[in-house]
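Hello again, I could really use a second opinion on something today. Take your time with it, there's no hurry, and the full record follows here:

___
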Amino acid sequence: MSVSPATTTPSHTLSERMARWGVVIVAAYALVAVVTPLLVQAGWLPDPNAGLDNTIYAAPSPAHWCGTDRLGRDVCVRTLSASGVALQVVVLALVVALVIGVPLGMVSGYLGGWVDRVLVLLMDTLYTLPVLLLSVVLAFLLGRGLPNAAAALCVAYIPQYFRVVRNQSAQVKAELYVEAARSLGAGPAWILRRYLFRNVITSVPVLLTLNAADAVLVLGGLGFLGLGLPETIPEWGGDLQQALTALPTGIWWTALYPGLAMFVLVLGLSFLGEGLESWLSGSSRASRAAR
């Protein structure tokens, strides 16, 4: 008797495709971020900050594939260079937010009491403010610059990691095996490391990828408002802000390519996050069914 192969549900197939496309897009941007500075340093690509008076607002051509901007700078090279800048700022901000938010959430959920109340009050206060608004206020106070932009994004995303990890830690704390470990004399540090961390860390990758997509847009918003990075550092939001004055005159290329690059990266990160979430939820259901 022949056995028909198991069929894959459409939703599962879609999530796999989204995850694959997300990996491809993010990997392509990471490759561009690494290769572009090397090509500029080797002289194969022009300096993204170098402009010539006779090439101001030059239309796309074989000499300048994406045209030039108001200072005669190559739009293609600036767009490619901005990929590395965006990834640097976003990765730095989210890693620091992760390192701060996850331990605070674990400690708050496990200890409870006044520690939990104080931390929840502080994080809820930050969480009630929109990410872009909070980032704009912090960027205005800190000033323009790559570390300052990363710090503004970091503070805005810490409450999200805290809330997710704190709620899961409070649930794991009530499990019987945690009570058994505590009755056998295990200390809080050992329980946090051995039980809580392994249970709560599984939800972080999905939140990390979705926050990365949001952080790219927030960073672009800061640059568009003139609060992001200095003009000497290629950045999509800043280039879009400079392109606004020329757009009504028919000079479309200075706005199209930075905006398109930002859109594709956000789309890739969103695909990766949605696919990863679907895969993790499916693995969790399969694990529970097996047990």
